[in-house]
């Protein structure tokens, strides 16, 4: 599938308010697919999925400010609109004029904000286990890491990460735990508050209905962080395609990459917008 595809290229782009880590895979002249990770994660959360997408896409991944290998300043904004603005600036710097944007969890919130800011840039949206509103959030003690000490203990990390997966026998990759360890307490808590604030202002289906972008919603049916039944809220968006994946939890991109890729590619082949 990936014969002749260009090798992974990584770089750090210096924006006005911080350095952003960027990965690119696939043919550079193929339609662009921007992947945006969720809270306390990074570009590495997409690693198992990327090889399944590069046969037909230029796959671009970024570490949002405060995450992964991007800067983690204490004096910059982690608000969702600012994270979206940075994502758009990265695409501008890479010379990308149109992209399908895919977001996992709170990354889907950033993707929505990017579509609001840059309707010229975002041709379609795919949201993976992105809660449509705060009403859909499943509140548990393990969903939050206490900041009485930082970095968190291994036990705290395991408890926090455990709700991100539901597939029987799934082993959480150590590098994903390292992503949390590598954050600052400030960048983690501020990023999570930013997502909450954005959803409090307006539910995502209401925002997306106004935008009119083609929309795919993928939800692991056994999500333990957001009620999977809430995926039906997105049907308020005209033409939205909603798919529930049985046996998977909050992170289908990691729990079952082939099944996730099949759903994504069926959508992107229609909306990627090949140009002559």
Automatic annotation (TrEMBL):
It holds the Pfam family Abhydrolase_1. It comes from the Bacteria. One of its GO terms (molecular function) is hydrolase activity. Keywords: Hydrolase. Residues 31-257 form the AB hydrolase-1 domain. This is Alpha/beta hydrolase.
């Amino acid at each position: 599938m990936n014969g002749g595809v260009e090798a992974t290229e990584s770089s750090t782009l210096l924006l006005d308010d911080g350095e952003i880590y960027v990965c690119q895979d696939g043919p550079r002249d193929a339609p662009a697919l921007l992947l945006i990770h969720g809270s306390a994660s990074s570009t590495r959360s997409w690693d198992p999925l990327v090889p399944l997408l590069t046969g037909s896409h230029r796959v671009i991944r970024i570490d949002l400010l405060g995450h992964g290998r991007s800067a983690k300043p204490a004096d910059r904004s982690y608000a969702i609109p600012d994270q979206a603005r940075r994502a758009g600036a990265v695409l501008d710097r890479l010379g990308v004029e149109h992209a399908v944007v895919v977001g996992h969890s709170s990354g889907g919130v950033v993707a929505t904000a990017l579509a609001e800011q840059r309707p010229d840039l975002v041709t379609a949206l795919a949201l993976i286990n992105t809660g449509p509103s705060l009403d859909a959030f499943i509140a548990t003690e393990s969903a939050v890491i206490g900041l009485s000490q930082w970095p968190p203990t291994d036990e705290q990390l395991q408890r926090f990460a455990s709700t991100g997966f539901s597939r029987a026998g799934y082993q959480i990759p150590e590098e994903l735990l390292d992503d949390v360890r590598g954050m600052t307490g400030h960048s983690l808590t501020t990023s999570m508050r930013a997502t909450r604030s954005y959803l409090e202002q307006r539910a995502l289906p209401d925002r997306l209905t106004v935008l009119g972008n083609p929309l795919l919603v993928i939800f692991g049916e056994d999500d333990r962080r957001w009620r999977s039944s809430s995926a039906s809220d997105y049907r308020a968006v005209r033409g939205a395609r909603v798919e529930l994946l049985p046996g998977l939890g909050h992170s289908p991109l990691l729990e079952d990459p082939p099944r996730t890729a099949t759903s994504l590619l069926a959508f992107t082949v229609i909306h990627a917008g090949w140009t002559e």
